[in-house]
Write a structure and sequence with these properties.
Elements (H helix, E strand, L loop, with lengths): L1 H26 L2 H8 L10 E4 L6 H10 L5 E4 L9 H6 L7 E3 L6 H15 L3 E5 L5 H11 L6 E4 L12 H21 L6 H7 L8
Parallel strand pairs: 1-2, 1-4, 2-3, 4-5
Helix pairs in contact: 1-7, 2-7, 5-6, 6-7, 7-8
Length: about 210
Amino acid sequence: MKKWIRDNRSMSVVLFGIVFIICTILFFPKSRVIDFLFYEEVPVKVDVIVLLSGDSFRMQKAAELYKAGYADKVLLTNALASGSTIEYAESFGIPRDALLTENEATSTFENALYSKDILLLQGFDSAIVVTSNYHMRRSKLAYDRVFHDTDISFTYVPYHHEDITRDSWGENKTTFKREYRKLIGGYFLYREGFLDPLREKLEEDDMEEI
């Protein structure tokens, strides 16, 4: 009975989130719609900086945070992809002995999923997640889902693209609409199990984004 109540409460939260997102898109000013995607927190000192692959500009932010002393280690997810390699990180001044790598992820959810074992194995208690501004809300959803059963705390600090701002709906509406579609899908599919093929389809172009 308790499990049934818990499951129904979880589904109610998911449905409320989806309805909220749809209403936001339809009825709120476009700047507010974009602001919802642009989730951001103030950086704090942590054990590791986690760089999400998919955009070569993100390394700039990870290097900035590392050099500012926010962490002694940087985890490169999907580190075989251009823009996320060890060599690329070194070109930004991050030394090799400060780098950890994960080489399997092909999507946002997998960025979180395959990072989990590494963070737990290293005994990390805290991390900064770095990704693009427009991609941060969905990234937070993925990390919240994957790490819900751990005590690791996350801080979310985006790279701000100069041409992707709260006032750039006209220029970037394709990117924003695609991100909202994936965010809504993520509320249903960001779970391990039989829905994996649907999630993989939803995120199939994640590593190719801006």
